[in-house]
Amino acid sequence: MTTKSYIKDYPRPQFVRDNWLNLNGEWSFRFDDLDAGERERWQEKLAGTHTINVPYSYETPASGIGAEEFHPRVWYERSVAIPQEAEGKRVILHFQAVDYTAKVWVNGAMAGSHQGGYAAFSFDITPYAAFGADNRITVKAEDSDSCTQPRGKQRWLADNFECFYAQTTGIWQTVWLEYVEERRLDSVKMTPDVDRNTIRFDYEVCGAEAGGDLRLEAMITLKGKPVKRVSLAADRSCLSVEVDLTHEAGGPWKKSLWSPQHPNLYDAEFVLHADGRVVDRVFSYFGMRKVSIENGRVLLNNVPIYQRLILDQGYWTDSHLTPPGEEALIEDIDLMLKMGYNGVRKHMKIEDARFLYWCDVKGLLVWSEMAATFEFHDRAIEAFSKEWVEIVRQQYNHPSIVTWVPFNESWGIPNVLRDKRQQKFAEGIYHLTKSLDPYRPVIANDGWEHTVSDIVTLHNYVETGEGFERRYASKEAIVSNETLCNQWKFAFAEGYEYRGQPIMITEFGGIAYQSDEGWGYGRQVATDEQFLERFEGLTRAIKSKAYICGYCYTQLADVQQEINGLLTEDRKPKIPLEKIREINLA
Questions:
Q1: Within 10 A of 563 (CB to CB), how many other CB atoms are there?
Q2: Can you give the residue ranges of the Glycoside hydrolase family 2 catalytic domain (predicted)?
Q3: In a 3-state reduction of DSSP, which class is residue 425?
Q4: Minimal CA–CA distance to 272: which of 294, 306, 303, 239?
């Protein structure tokens, strides 16, 4: 159940090299509420006041600190030995995620900075590194309570409220090093064409402009058997090649398509040769699958698919947004599959790349959703757009991702119903996403008040199946804005109309057991029987509407004060999983 390239805990599983060093673990740490650090040149020597366990944010018990009060600036430092034998190579320092702005120094010299709490980034630190010696890496992370920065479910008040939880500040995903050659492969964008049985590789090559005999080779295998080998001259930095995967016997390998039932993955090995020697070797994989829309239905590999999704916010008790380990990611996916779901809507969070890897391997569909801003402002437009482009590019190759969701419930565009600027922003992000990836559906505003959208997605937390059937008795009334799609919102923003898109209910349920310490949607239930009656009634009512082609239940697990999960926050089932599965598959 793994690809040829799989290395446990490797932070970037679709672009794997052998020579890497994990920098997670103990770092020196210090708060900087007065912003004194740079003036006092802490980058030259950080007199840390705490020890923190990276990659857990200081707000979490797993970090070893566990202080939830907000601090706008925090510093990290650790030493790492760079071996003498690495001299002559480039040393790349990677951060999978730092919230929100990161400044990085190596041995006191500024190596680079990055803004955005969810996208991965890296710096070439070779000019500042000492080979055969210890090297001091210092990081300053700056965060804010501003609602113009993408923050998702992170609170901006002193305490949790409604569906907003303790903030995440600083490093919250893996930090690591790798040693590479000057001439190397920077990225590969992989685009499958199921109808033509081809895969297109778009390469970015570092050092191609230096000249010399540079060749790039790709070797593709399926379940250990050779499929194709292609080679081309790497005479410029951006290259493309299309590979025909047709079987030598003359027909396409139809059983090699990727789907939830058969998550077939091709292994790919990319080798860069310079002047007759191997200078870079990267291992990856891809899935042959197609997502399309036809006659009001979503198709996977040209066959209609009914999506049974579950909403997942990706929080854990002691580590919040950071998974407590790769096993925790695998456990969540396995629990979703056991309950009869074939997909997940990853809500208000860009998840660890290892989660997407296991969704690829196990066959779980993914809706990738951006963390929201909560104020419409020029600064929000710029910050959101820039980071969303990074994320789409970084996640593009995962076959499990079948839908992009940049906005949710008008968050960040609160007046999109009527405000032309906000409508144009939603439209612009839709078209920007399509320019990067025309092959997946894009939902510009999940829940209601749609402008342009490939799927009309609606949220409704009515308590009973009977109530749902009354509200959705007439498709025409809903899509024409004659009636509200829930208690307070219309399906479309003013000036926009239904154009035959598929319709899905992408939030419903949220049923909670009786408790004085948290909340769910609607009245809380006292017994398993009451829970199952309500869960089954709602699910059956949605399935009874022929014009609805899928749903997303809220939610997988409890999150802090929000106790409406099918599982507790520590992933204990509240209801036997087989009962949930029976209802989903009925």
A1: 21
A2: 293-582
A3: helix
A4: 239
CA dihedral 315, 317, 319, 322 (to 10 degrees): -20
Which candidate, 188, 201, 196, 285, places its Cα nearest to that of 244? 196
CATH topology of domain 20-180: Jelly Rolls (2.60.120)
Interatomic CA distance for residues 308 and 583, integer angstroms = 11
Q: Is the dihedral of CA 291, 293, 298, 302 positive or negative?
A: negative
pLDDT score of 254 more than 70 = no
What amino acid occupies position 507?
Answer: E
Element containing residue 391 per DSSP (H, E)? helix 378-395
**In CATH, what is the architecture of 303-585?**
Alpha-Beta Barrel (3.20)
For residue 495, which phi and psi values (nearest 5 degrees)? 95, 0
Assess contact for 216 and 205: CB atoms under 8 A. Answer: yes
φ/ψ region of 539 (left if φ > 0, alpha if ψ in -120 to 50, else beta) reads: alpha
Amino acid at 174: T
Give me the numbers of helices (H) and strands (E) for the chain, helices first please. 8, 29
Query: Which residues are CB-contacts of 22 (< 8 A; sequence separation ≥ 6)?
Result: 9, 11, 174, 176
Measured over the CA atoms of residue 530, residue 532, residue 533 and residue 534, the dihedral's sign is positive
Task: Pick the closest to residue 498 from 461, 553, 539, 547 (CA basis).
Answer: 547
**Residues 411-470: tens digit of each pLDDT:** 999 999 999 999 999 999 999 999 999 999 999 999 999 999 999 999 999 999 999 999
Cβ atoms within 10 Å, residue 433: 22
Cα–Cα nearest to 326, from 363, 290, 284, 356: 356
What count of other Cβ atoms lies within 10 Å of the Cβ of residue 428? 15
In the chain, where the domains are located:
20-180, 184-286, 303-585
d(CA 146, CA 149) in angstroms, rounded, equals 6
Which residue type is seen at 568? T
CA distance 453 to 426: 10
- What's the rounded Cα separation, in Å, for the pair 467 and 478? 15
The predicted structure's pLDDT at residue 209: 78
Q: Which amino acid is at 419?
A: D
One-letter identity of residue 315: Y
Do 223 and 267 contact (CB within 8 A), yes or no? Answer: no
Using CA atoms, how far apart are residues 388 and 116, in angstroms rounded to an integer? Answer: 9
C-alpha to C-alpha distances, 229 to 43, 71, 178, 217, 397, nearest whole angstrom: 48, 53, 27, 7, 20
Burial-class residue 564 by CB neighbours within 10 Å (0-12, 13-18, 19+).
Answer: buried
CA–CA distances in Å: residue 336 to residues 39, 344, 503: 50, 8, 23
CATH topology (fold) of 184-286: Immunoglobulin-like (2.60.40)
Q: How far apart are CA 287 and CA 258, in angstroms?
A: 5
Q: At what angle do helices 326-338 and 353-362 cross, to 10 degrees?
A: 40
Helix (H) or strand (E) holding 239: strand 238-244
What pTM was estimated for this model as a whole?
Answer: 0.96
pLDDT 10s digits, 394-414? 999 999 999 999 999 999 999
Q: How many CB atoms lie within 10 A of CB 331?
A: 14
Under 8 Å between Cβ of 141 and 98: yes
